Amino acid sequence: MSKKLEEKQRRRLAEERKRDELRKAARRRNLTTSGVALLVAAGVVTAIVMQRQAEEGPAAAVGVSERQAGCTGVQEHEEMGATHIDVGAPHEPYGAPAPTSGPHYAGDAGPVDPGFYEEPIPPEGAIHNLEHGMIVIWYSPDAPEEEIANIEEITDQERFATVALPYPGLQTDKNFVLTAWTVSQECDQVSQDVVDEFRRNYQGKLGPEPLTDTFEG
């Protein structure tokens, strides 16, 4: 075999190895993306709840029973749009009892990192999370410390898909409001059963851009 042919075969084999590596890398990225999307998807919420109950038992449930929680029924709200606005830009007031849709920040200002917040943050950032199918819990800054602690615990159960923040503009006598895109439920006390049901029904199912793991735009 000539040196020219050998060199050609080496180049071909090198190119094939490179293509194989690129295909494997693409498969890994796709699996990662799919995994994140499935975690946010409502169907997996049921599995998470069942696994948590199996591993930790009934004693791990946060808060009180559904009957004791003092929750309203789930309310549906008219969508206020999903316009991206600059930080500080004026916009129409959000609806009551807490934001469920509307103009919101993009880029570095939104969506915000999922998790529990002790200090108020601009609601325009968290509304972007709603747009992507997340659950946002808006709680009164004057809520009892025990309830705030329970809200933090319930948020920690699914930090990848839940935001909880104090909201001085809360328009209800209840201590907090569970929200997804265009729906809300007001409660006096945290109930594991109520929160699990809300997540099963709405997490990853509502919002113009659900199941987005990159959170861009």
Folded structure, characterized:
- The protein is α/β, with parallel strands linked by helices and about 220 residues long.
- It has helices spanning about 5-40, 40-55, 125-130, 145-155, 190-200; strands spanning about 75, 85, 105, 115, 135-140, 160-165, 175-180, 185.
- The termini are far apart.
- About 40% of the residues lie in helices and about 15% in strands.
- The chain has one domain (about 40-200).
- The relative contact order is 0.18.
Task: Give a short account of the largest sheet.
Answer: 6 strands, mixed
Biggest β-sheet: strands ordered side by side in the sheet? 1-8-7-5-6-4
**Poorly predicted runs of 5 or more residues:** 26-53, 212-217
Helical run tally: 5
Outline type: elongated
Number of strands: 8
Topology (SSEs and partners):
Elements: H1 3-40, H2 42-56, E1 75-76, E2 84-85, E3 104-105, E4 115-116, H3 123-131, E5 135-139, H4 145-156, E6 162-166, E7 176-180, E8 183-187, H5 192-202
Parallel strand pairs: 2-3, 4-6, 5-6
Antiparallel strand pairs: 1-8, 5-7, 7-8
Helix pairs in contact: 2-5
In short:
The protein has 217 residues and is α/β, with parallel strands linked by helices. It has helices spanning 3-40, 42-56, 123-131, 145-156, 192-202; strands at residues 75-76, 84-85, 104-105, 115-116, 135-139, 162-166, 176-180, 183-187. Strands 1-8-7-5-6-4 form a 6-stranded mixed sheet, with helices on both faces.
